[in-house]
Amino acid sequence: MEFQKQVTLIIKSENHFIYQSQALDLYSIKYSPNFDTNDFFAAARLLIQNQQQRHEDLTIENYADLLLTKEFKEILGIINKGIIIKSNSQEKVILINYNASFGFKSEILPDIFKQYIPKDIKKRYALLITEPFYYTKFVNIMEAMHLGIYKEEDENWEVYLVMEHKFPDLQGLDGIVITGSSSAAYDLSEDWKEPLFEFLREADKLKIRILGICFGHQVLAHCLGGEAQKMTHVDRMQVGRKAISTQFKWKDYVIENLNVYQIHGDFVAKLPKDTEVIMSTDHCQNYAYKNDHILGVQFHPEFNALILLYIFRNSTNPLREIYAKDCYESFKQGYDHQQIIWEFMIQFLKNK
């Protein structure tokens, strides 16, 4: 199964809108998540290729190197702040403020923008970033990896750097996403861990919807009656695309082998209280768990081949070449199931 999605940009530049031509056609791009990581990355690629007049096909390696540039990260920051006008599984329309040097300028409002009526009361969600190397490697990239999946119309998303002891007000909060991290959930030498534990315990008491990803999955277990540990039963981190044996039902399909992306050296050895296992692998029994308001997954819904290559092309790990080879080998197997996984995550987080 090869899925495609379309992203359309309403580009506002000062008092004008930017169209492709005098026909007032908006800029749009169709993408597959086996190349572009999600809607926001596809939109950023569309902008940078038009801005730089680069219309040749990118290899995934060229794309990974593009992510290293300051310009691409700045454009991702603009997309992150955009207003979602329309969002469904096939299409997303984003309004952004961007001083483009390309296209046809007009004061005429796009038809789809005329039809947009924002709600007075919006859902409120929080993204908790837990990566210590955020400032050196992941500025705007980490936000885009998650917001490009979860951010929909009539929602306010707040971003907090947990390492700086910053947390949202739980009052009126509809959901929380906890990111992955190069840190370990069980390493309490870092002074931001205990405040994070206390925050999550309070959110759990209020039964706020929480999605924990990789480190987030481990830290939820570690602070809610379970335990995270280092994986000593394998010889190195588990990286790449992994096929999980499931009977995952999605629309008219039954996915017997769900392909997910992973990079982890720790695991949940003991489940948090009142949760059940929903996915297991040969190297990790508690690969995903849930209850009525918590979902923890060891894999990365926000990753694809591009992000894994970006990480290892930007790594000082002495095994980086081995991990890159592991990734390339894993990419040869099966189809990309990211859009299926995104729908599952969104439905849980937003109780749809």
UniProtKB/TrEMBL annotation:
InterPro entries for this protein: ChyE-like, GATASE
GO cellular component, one term: cytosol
Domain spans labelled Glutamine amidotransferase: 170-304
Pfam families from the UniProt entry: GATase
Name of the protein this chain belongs to: Glutamine amidotransferase domain-containing protein
